Amino acid sequence: MTYCVGLLLTRGMVLLSDTRTNAGLDNISTYRKMFTFEDPGERVIVVLTAGSLSVTQTTMARLTEAIESPEATPETSIMQAATMLKVAEIIGDTLAVTRAEIDDKLAAGQASATASMIVAGQRRGGTMRMFLIYPEGNFIEATEDTPFLQIGEHKYGKPILDRVVTPETSLEEAQKAVLLSMDSTLRSNLSVGMPLDLAVIEADTMRITSRRRIEAGDAGFAAMSQAWSQALRDAFSGISL
Fold first, then answer.
1. Which of 23, 175, 185, 241 shows its CA 20 to 30 Å from the CA of 164?
2. Omega into 135 within 30° of 0, i.e. cis?
3. SS3 for 127?
4. Element (H or E) spanning 24, and its range?
5. 167 backbone dihedrals φ, ψ, rounded to 5°
6. Domain positions in the chain
7. What whole-number distance in Å separates Cα of residue 96 and Cα of residue 102?
8. Of the candidates 169, 173, 189, 48, which has an alpha carbon nearest to the alpha carbon of residue 120?
């Protein structure tokens, strides 16, 4: 499994993913779950993936192939689509077809595969938009009322986001929020693991303005985790019945 989270804010977007993939306790691997597509100044798209690795890898390979095809059109390529809504539709359709094909192959063994994705980006002349795409290809969009989306093992990291994130949250504070959300998940679920991929897109830049890979043992992340744990202990001790 995995955990991915994206924040849609007035000042930009912040996205974070882990890299763990497991097929049992004795079969744990590291695979990238964040995929970026850029034409700086014109368009930026980030895709976060969770679920069956066969589904997500095949879907991303097909999306990349469509971008690179000499016959690419706004109907087939996410780098030519007229709107971010069309980008979400192309990715949703590709995911749904891929999942159905793999499910058919697994049917004989009474198994199934599923996956979901977060798609975030902006094109020149358009607004920033962020979507959560379900295995069936349908999707929902982040809004001012719900400025963050999660996929994978999301329940452990949701409380802090509910409490601190608003559309007016700064990009610096937003990075802190998603990292602490991930820290809570790492502590509670072994199917989520390091390293982490963090990307920041400032509004109207149409490019990734900050990118960071956080490895196991990263001093800054460890210090933040320890400070958060101590703050929670102090708050707990200070509350009276």
1. 241
2. no
3. coil
4. none
5. -55, -25
6. 3-238
7. 10
8. 48
Q: Evaluate whether 160 touches 177 at the Cβ level (below 8 Å).
A: yes
Indicate the residue type of 132. L
Q: How far apart are CA 71 and CA 53, in angstroms?
A: 28
Q: Give the SS3 label for residue 46.
A: strand
- Please name which of 123, 143, 144, 120 lies closest in space to residue 131, comparing C-alpha atoms: 120
44, 201 contact by CB (below 8 A)? yes
- What's the pTM value of the predicted model, to 2 decimals? 0.95
CATH 3.60.20.10 fits 3-238, yes or no: yes
Tokens standing for residue 186:
């790492």
